[in-house]
Write a structure and sequence with these properties.
The chain is an all-alpha fold. It has four helices and no strands. Keywords: Signal.
Length: 117
Amino acid sequence: MTPNRIVSCLICLLLAGAVQAQQAPPAAAPPVANTAPAGADGEEAGDQDDRAWRDTSAYPFGALADTALRLELVAKAMQLRDYCADRRVQDEFVRERLRRFSALSGRPEDCRSLLDY
């Protein structure tokens, strides 16, 4: 199975899950408790109310941009795994690509860590 076909299958699975989640009845969100300490002034209580309306902890999926980034990282990791496995590819080229991928993923990457994707 080619890497492009695998990525296409992953995208289809994620989209199918998103469609299924949209068709499911929404779950009741847990009530957000006011965690303001007793005797807090109105400004602190107002700040907590401002944060409460933006609570997304009950969302079944993250933001679309986050999903797109994870799919992009999976595709790049698969390509890098192929570079790591191919002895004809120069070591310096692989190291440079791993450095760039580390900058995107936000963690140190090597050929073994690519198995996490």
